[in-house]
Amino acid sequence: xxxxxxxxxxxxxxxxxxxxxxxxxxxxxxxxxxxxxxxxxxxxxxxxxxxxxxxxxxxxxxxxxxxxxxxxxxxxxxxxxxxxxxxxxxxxxxxxxxxxxxxxxxxxxxxxxxxxxxxxxxxxxxxxxxxxxxxxxxxxxxxxxxxxxxxxxxxxxxxxx
Length: 161
What we know:
This protein is α+β, with helices and mostly antiparallel strands. Helix content is 30%, strand content 28%. The longest helix has 19 residues, at 10-28.
């Protein structure tokens, strides 16, 4: 299915994802904080929705057992790209596993995760790359994780497969 690039509000996308995930967030007592300044981007709306949903669901899984769990969705302005992040105060990711987490079907055994398939983060990486951006994680064991991704302000291609 080809990507369809439109001007879309990333605030609107994150709001819709947050509304879908609200029961899970409430069930686990997780505070979701979304920056008020998320930009309008050139992106495939449905695919970007998947990116934010996969990153937030991932954060939900890994913050569910900490005291005062929090997830932040934020944005930083860069010269040629939009830099987004999803940060949690969960269990964190060991440095040795940080590159591996983007591999298809890899599941870390840190938590009891009946629903995980190991494809969420590879989907995020593939989608971001297809939009001309990059994704990475910064984390320390026991200190939460921050997933960053960039999207070019001016995508080179308007459709791709």
